[in-house]
Amino acid sequence: MSLRTAYAAALQLLRTRGEISQRELADAVDPSYVSRLEAGTRSVTLDVSHELAKALGVDPLTLLALAYAAERGQTPRQVVDQLVRDLESTGLLGSEIPPLPSKRTHPVVAASLELRAQIRELIDQGFSQAEVARRLGVSRQTVSNRLKKLS
């Protein structure tokens, strides 16, 4: 079963068990969109899933747990137990997660910046471009290009 179809089944289950019509979810999401989600013809975003769960009166994770249970042919308990095992085995169960992703520099960019700093330092010490290239194990053209970017 596809995850889209499983999500459709979970959404429909929660909505019908709560005796909520698609139209009653209109404050959260357009009824035609809910209809397409339940038909399995549309994928859902995390933001929309969050709004639907709130409108259905459940935690957003409940809706996702039901969807994954349907997709895997498991009970929600089995899905939650697996989730806890995964979080424990990775040491993340008791971890505080930062609210925003870190702004990490790509390794290639970091290496380039480091090389540029090394070139600058050697040039400032009075070495020629050829000597800098030999010391750093790069071509003279690389040294020349980095110096142009420093100017």
Structure description:
With 151 residues, the protein is mostly helical. The protein has 2 domains: 3-89, lambda repressor-like DNA-binding domains (434 Repressor (Amino-terminal Domain)), CATH 1.10.260.40; 107-150. 66% of the residues lie in helices and 0% in strands. It contains 8 helices and no strands. Helix 3 (46-56) packs across helix 4 (60-72) and helix 4 packs across helix 5. This is Helix-turn-helix domain-containing protein. Residues 11-63, 125-145 form the HTH cro/C1-type domain. InterPro entries: Cro/C1-type_HTH, Homeodomain-like_sf, IS30-like_HTH, Lambda_DNA-bd_dom_sf. One of its GO terms (molecular function) is DNA binding.
Low-confidence stretches: none
Overall radius of gyration: 27 Å
Number of strands: 0
Question: Which percent band covers the strand fraction?
Answer: under 5%
Q: Report the principal-axis shape.
A: elongated
**CATH architecture classification name of the largest domain:** Orthogonal Bundle
What's the CATH topology label of the largest domain?
Answer: 434 Repressor (Amino-terminal Domain)
Give helix % range.
55-70%
The helix count comes to 8
Number of domains in the coordinates?
2
Main sheet: strands, sense, barrel: none
Could you report the average pLDDT, rounded to the nearest whole number? 93
Strand-and-helix sequence, N→C? HHHHHHHH
Alpha-beta content class? mainly alpha
CATH class of the largest domain: Mainly Alpha
What is the assigned CATH homologous superfamily of the largest domain? lambda repressor-like DNA-binding domains
Pfam family, one: HTH_3
Protein name: Helix-turn-helix domain-containing protein
Domain HTH cro/C1-type: 11-63, 125-145
GO molecular function: DNA binding
